[in-house]
Write a structure and sequence with these properties.
- The complex is a heterodimer.
- Chain A is α/β, with parallel strands linked by helices.
- Chain A contains 16 helices and 18 strands.
- In chain A, α2 crosses α5.
- The radius of gyration of chain A is 22 Å and the shape is globular.
- In chain B, β5 and β6 form a beta hairpin.
- The radius of gyration of chain B is 18 Å and the shape is globular.
- Classes of the chains: A alpha/beta, B alpha/beta.
- The interface between A and B is large, with 70 and 55 residues.
């Protein structure tokens, strides 16, 4: 019987396997950041252990950093302390750090791919659940807790039980204005925030194949939002072309050897999955979430579900979510006034996202009632945007381009959405208080966010695109 | 290094019948700036437990003196979202030894097991029975036996078995640690690196 892509990569990384024990899985690259690593380094010190493979560990500061005036010392004392601690730990244990001010600094899931560190067939972990992003390259990549960060620092390995395998196929042609973010929000809305728990999910089908690497990263990034252990997409020409020539990508003979191997990385025709789901691209509208988990999403023209449509046991939680969001049964979000728009996060802060937004907002201006933040995923994305003149377009539209970091996705720095305010956000989580205490998040695509910033209301991007075609 | 040992407990429970409780609720991101593992219990469920002026919200279960105990019982898909181990630290630091739910998110489950906090997954029906038992009598106790993998409602004697990875079970009962185990296989790691 054939093998799945996931099993091919997993098997190639099993150091040892024993009945009744989780596998010992070898990790090719371990990404670390300031928030989930200090206790792990402390653990190493207590044990008197070195970092086993410091050259396979890559560090950056992203969660806590300001996105304005990054050249100045961090004002917030605890944030500064945590970032300084990372610098100190990396120095002590011999780890390369792309800290503030470094040309490679940025959100860990943006810099790994753009530096050519993330490659097909590899294993990647990080103390951050959105590590699933890296699976877009046909790799196994997942988030871990701090005890496991310590484990990988100490051994370059992780004790891990093999998850079940799920295939999600999307076939067909997307409507204009519908993109990768809408696809993944649609899938999560269909299968719920727990629908992928226990699975490694492979995305397949011609719609997925047609996506750029940026789009594929957006899809894999949000695998965790349906509970999946990881998400992955078989590498192809698009993947190979993206990796080629990047800073740490293999070169010369090594490159040819690598590509030959990558071309063997696909699920065999007779591979068996524990679960297979299929969706039609034509059914997907621009999506928006209305609730407090990413599974609570609807097409932008649809209405919020009625409480009575849920199982009695679920109604308490549902009511709590609607109350928090200040919404009611059967409400339509379309046209609802908003206060903030956040374009950024490891889901949607890559150069392609910024180009798409810039192309759309060129010559337009944001509505007066809306504050817009555009936060690039990395220093390299920021520089590229400036080289292409996107910053000027953004400025003229009232969308200031800030400096790289996780920013308002989780509000660990100053970029918080105030209590009670509505934010259309390109990030990945709409949990209570995620963007700041009592903030209210509508998750959507970069295009939907940009269009909503222009009108000051939740907007159907397709209406704009129709008008523009007529002009 | 030894970790916390868990074998058997009998205790009243704290009921929290909300589904999809994510780790941002368990411990909001703004409290992740600490660089040690201690003290997170003070901010457990911070925004559900305290208002914006840091006054306890009387309707939240942790502020209700009627309920106490070493076991938190919560709705399905507990611990979804962020991988922050701080969530497991906060629950353990507050004083819970186990969390019972009808479904756990993967990363949270792993983090809990690595900290001597036992995640006990029960059926939807059994979860409801626990909630019903506590509603009828707030001092209702449950008994959790890790060795024999069962959870029992003391008053009614109703019980259910639960799954736990045999390796992690041995770790929790004996206080074994993953890193010690992997390091005992160090030669295999080096062999693996040599041949690939």
């Amino acid at each position: 019987m054939g093998q799945t892509l996931f099993d091919k990569i997993w098997d190639a990384h099993v150091v040892s396997s024993a009945e009744g024990f989780p596998d010992i899985l070898y990790i090719d690259t371990h990404f670390i950041h300031e928030v989930t690593s200090p206790q792990a380094f402390d653990g190493l010190r207590k044990r008197g252990l070195p970092v086993f493979r410091p050259q396979q560990t890559v560090a950056t500061a992203d969660h806590n950093v300001p996105t304005w005036d990054q050249h100045l010392p961090i004002k917030e004392e605890l944030s500064r302390y945590q970032v300084d601690m990372l610098t100190k730990n990396c120095k002590e244990f011999g780890i390369e750090l792309y800290g503030l001010g470094h040309p490679y600094q940025g959100i860990v899931h943006v810099i790994g791919p753009e530096l050519g560190i993330t490659r097909p067939g590899g294993t990647y972990v990080c103390g951050d659940s959105h590590t699933s992003t890296h699976g877009a390259f046909g790799a196994i990549a997942f988030g871990i807790g701090t005890s496991q960060v310590e484990q990988v620092l100490a051994t370059q390995c992780l004790l891990q039980s093999r998850p079940k395998r799920m295939k999600i196929e999307v076939n067909g042609k997307l409507q204009k204005g519908v993109g990768a973010k809408d696809i993944i929000l649609y899938i999560i809305a269909q299968i719920s925030a727990a629908g992928g728990t226990g699975y490694a999910v492979e995305y397949a089908g011609d719609t997925i194949r047609s996506l750029s690497m940026e789009g594929r990263m957006t899809i894999c990034n949000m695998s965790i939002e349906m509970g999946a252990r990881c998400g992955l997409i078989a590498p192809d020409e698009t993947t190979i072309n993206y990796v080629k020539g990047r800073e740490f990508a293999p070169k010369g003979e090594e490159w040819d050897k690598a590509v030959a191997y990558w071309q063997t990385l696909y699920s065999d025709a007779d591979a068996e999955f524990d679960s297979v789901l299929s969706f039609r691209a034509e059914d997907i509208e621009p999506m928006i979430t209305y609730g407090t988990n990413p599974g609570m999403g609807i097409g932008v023209t649809q209405h919020v579900p009625e409480t009575a449509s849920f199982d009695v046991k679920e109604q308490v939680s549902y009511k709590k979510a609607l109350d928090y969001m200040g919404l009611h049964d059967d409400e339509q979000l379309l046209g609802k006034p908003i206060d903030y728009v956040f374009i950024g996060s490891c889901t949607n802060s890559r150069i392609e996202d910024l180009r798409q937004v810039a192309e759309f907002v060129k010559g337009k201006h944001k509505a007066d009632n809306v504050t817009v933040w555009v936060v690039p995923g990395s220093k390299q994305v920021q520089e590229q945007a400036i080289r292409e003149g996107l910053d000027k377009i953004f400025n003229e539209a009232g969308f200031p381009l800030r400096e790289p970091g996780c920013s308002a996705c989780l509000g660990m720095n100053e970029d918080k959405i105030p209590a009670g305010k509505y934010c259309v956000s390109t990030s990945n989580r709409n949990f209570e208080g995620r963007q700041g205490p009592n903030s209210r998040t509508f998750l959507a695509s970069p295009l939907t966010a940009a269009a909503s910033a222009i009108t000051g209301r939740v907007t159907d991007i397709r209406e704009f695109l129709k008008e523009e075609e007529l002009v | 290094m030894a970790t916390k040992i868990f074998k058997h407990i009998q205790t009243p429970v704290v009921p929290l019948a909300i589904e999809n409780i994510d780790t941002d609720q368990i411990i909001p991101a703004r409290f992740l700036k600490a660089t040690t593992r201690e003290g997170f219990g003070n901010n457990l469920f911070r925004d559900w437990r305290f208002d914006e002026n840091d006054h306890p919200k009387p309707d939240f279960v942790l502020n209700n003196p009627t309920y106490s105990g070493k076991v938190l019982v919560a709705g399905k898909n507990f611990g979804c979202g962020s991988s922050r181990e701080h969530a497991a630290w906060a629950i353990a630091d507050y004083g819970f030894d186990a969390v019972v739910s009808s479904f756990f998110a993967d990363i949270f489950k792993g983090n809990a097991l690595n900290n001597g906090l036992l995640p006990v997954q029960v059926s939807d029906d059994f979860l409801q029975k626990i909630f019903d038992a506590v509603a009828a009598d707030h001092t209702a106790e449950v008994e959790i036996d890790l060795e024999n993998q069962y959870i029992k409602i003391s008053a009614t004697g109703e019980q259910e078995t639960f799954e736990v990875n045999p390796y992690k079970k041995a770790c929790m009962i004996n206080g074994y640690d993953d890193i010690d185990y992997i390091l005992s296989q160090k030669n295999k790691i080096e062999e693996f690196e040599d041949v690939r």
